[in-house]
Amino acid sequence: MNKKAQNLNVTTIIIVILAILVLVILALSFTGGMTELWKKIVGTKQITFDQSDINLAIQKCQMYCEQSDYGSYCRFTAEPLKEEGKEIGPRCWEVAKLYDKKAYCYDGDTKINEEWCKKPENGYLQ
User: Fold this and answer.
1) In sequence order, what are the beta bridge partners of 112?
2) In this structure, are residues 73 and 92 in contact, taking their beta carbons and an 8 Å threshold?
3) Which residues, in sequence order, are bridge partners of residue 107?
4) Is this structure's pTM higher than 0.90?
5) What does the alpha-carbon distance between residue 78 and residue 121 come to, in Å, rounded to a whole number?
6) What is the distance between the terminal CA atoms of the chain, rounded to a whole angstrom?
7) Bridge partners, residue 82, by sequence
């Protein structure tokens, strides 16, 4: 008996390899493995925080406003977002804008926001 093996085309082998690679990438992206891989590729650290961190930031901002402590309101930076001594946000006005409108602060009719905090006459952020 003379049996012949079936020939596989080179193109077919390449397509199978690419399909397997695509499946691996999809599996990594759905399981969260791409995040770690992406960090290694770009060399940057992603900064994340959960809902409890947001709630704590909202409470602190509301407390500063209720106490008319505008300096602390202007200078506050959410803890999980401090990195290597640099404050990178969010500030209280950003917490209010992004997460909870109740964290906005007013002094009478004046809204305490980034522009107000950066005014030289207020002296909080310069």
Assistant:
1) 105
2) yes
3) 110
4) no
5) 25
6) 91
7) 87
Of residues 81, 78, 68, the one with CA closest to residue 112: 68
Amino acid in position 24? V
Cα distances from 28 to residues 21, 25, 36, 47, 76, in angstroms, run 11, 5, 10, 20, 37
Specify the residue for token string 């202007």.
Answer: 74
Provide CB contacts within 8 A for 106, sequence distance 6+: 65, 112
- Give per-residue pLDDT as tens, 10-50: 898 999 999 999 998 888 778 777 777 666 776 655 555 66
Of 125, 106, 119, 100, nearest to 65 by C-alpha is 106
Bridge partners, residue 46, by sequence: none
> Tens digits of per-residue pLDDT, 70-122?
888 888 887 655 445 555 567 887 877 777 677 788 888 888 888 888 888 88
Residue with tokens 């409890």: 52
User: Helices 10-31 and 33-42, interaxial angle, to 10°?
Assistant: 100
Which residue shows structure tokens 């006459």? 121
Residue 107: its H or E element? strand 105-107
